[in-house]
Amino acid sequence: MGKVIAISNQKGGVGKTTTSINLASGLAHVGKKVLLIDFDSQGNATQGLNASQNNSQATIHSVLMEGVPIQQAIVPKMNPRIDIVPANINLAGADLDMDKMEAGKEELLKKAIAPIRDQYDYIIIDCPPSLGLLNTNALTAADSILIPVQCEYYALEGVTQLLITIRLVQRTSNRNLKIEGILLTMFDIRTRLSVEVSQDVRQTFGKLVYQNSIPRNVKLSEAPSRGMSIFEYDPKSTGAKAYAGLTEEVLKRNSKEA
Ligand code: ADP
Ligand code: MG
């Protein structure tokens, strides 16, 4: 059964999509079978991997709200081979539409991916920047949550809020939800703030925090405009090295559990 990892933080711009794309790609590069589900109506992961297609392409919205089988929504990407379930602006209303549903509204994604879980080693969910029903669906479908934390003021407050949500999900719709890890992003060794926030987060969360932090690296922000992960766009960049290191850590943690 594939391991399902939700990349989640209710804050926008902390590196969720960048991490989703590059962790998915890093895992694919070492031969893992990976499905990336874009779960944000901004569709950044979809665009960043050039998986946006014509208007008739099924998206995660068609899967959740129109009952389209997930297999029909998968867009294959070559080099490295990743399957992508795209998202677009259609998903923007899904939180509200789901809320009107009677039972099982937290479990739509979990049910949707059940038939294909064993076809993948890893299923990565790029979550939206909110704590609404979409995020609850992701955390209900997931085995674990990977939390990107940007090295800036209020980083810890944001994580504390997220931990409350995680506990709520653990008490209600997914009691097996684990924390996969906490990832420091946009780290800039030259700024005191980055160093301080990083120390704070490491002190508070200990071993949950990955040893590799992701540096601020312009190559990471350029790669999506070419439809590439950092490993295709600039494999020698500091960003590529950091995400390769993260990939190794994720693999190592999971081999210990298995
Ligand atoms: P989120 O999905 O949490 O909103 P993104 O991954 O889209 O965050 O990142 C927000 C912006 O910051 C994007 O423009 C992205 O290209 C850029 N970015 C993310 N991580 C880095 C990094 N390590 N170095 C430089 N730019 C980054
Ligand atoms: Mg995003």
UniProtKB/TrEMBL annotation:
Signal peptide: none annotated. InterPro entries: AAA_dom, DNA_Partitioning_ATPase, P-loop_NTPase. Dimerizes in the presence of ATP but not ADP; ATP-binding is required for double-stranded (ds)DNA-binding. Interacts with DnaA. Residues 3-179 form the AAA domain. Belongs to the ParA family. It holds the Pfam family AAA_31. It catalyses: ATP + H2O = ADP + phosphate + H(+). It comes from the Bacteria. This is Sporulation initiation inhibitor protein Soj. Coiled coil: none annotated.
